[in-house]
Amino acid sequence: MQTKKKWLVTSLLGFPLGMAISQSISIIISLVSTYFSGKVQYLAVPPSLAQSLDGELWAVCWQTFWAGMLGALFMACRVIWDKEEWSLLKRSLLYYLITVSATLLVAHLNQWVVFHLVSYVVFLFIYTVIFMLIWVITYLRSYFLMKRWNQKLSKL
């Protein structure tokens, strides 16, 4: 029961986190666009999404909802790392496959990527590189933390 409660609480916390990250990305994209184009504009959503949903307001609501769902899923998947009886490879692959699939779906729904094979391949490549960087940094951090704890325990 404790695992289900933890899963539910982390999922609920992930929804607003996903929304906040989505809005932050919109702001960053707008700032970069403004810097390079010289035209000050806020790009809340891809123009194609606003056009397909009959206006920017509906597109922002749509994108925010799906970004929140993606945040909830990422947080819900954190319980995978608690399965210590599984190998690190199994946990990593399962987490990667679930999150990359969901992210690709949300990217498609929000028109963050153009509906073209090359766009999806580039998206998957970028996602995989970022995932691997975060994984390696997290692994190294945990490794050195454990090493430090073991040194302290050996001195006792």
Automatic annotation (TrEMBL):
Membrane-crossing segments per the record: 12-37, 57-81, 93-114, 120-140
Taxonomic superkingdom: Bacteria
Keyword terms: Membrane, Transmembrane, Transmembrane helix
InterPro entries to which the protein is assigned, alphabetical: DUF3021 (IPR021560)
Name of the molecule in the record: DUF3021 domain-containing protein
Classification of source organism: Bacteria, Bacillati, Bacillota, Bacilli, Lactobacillales
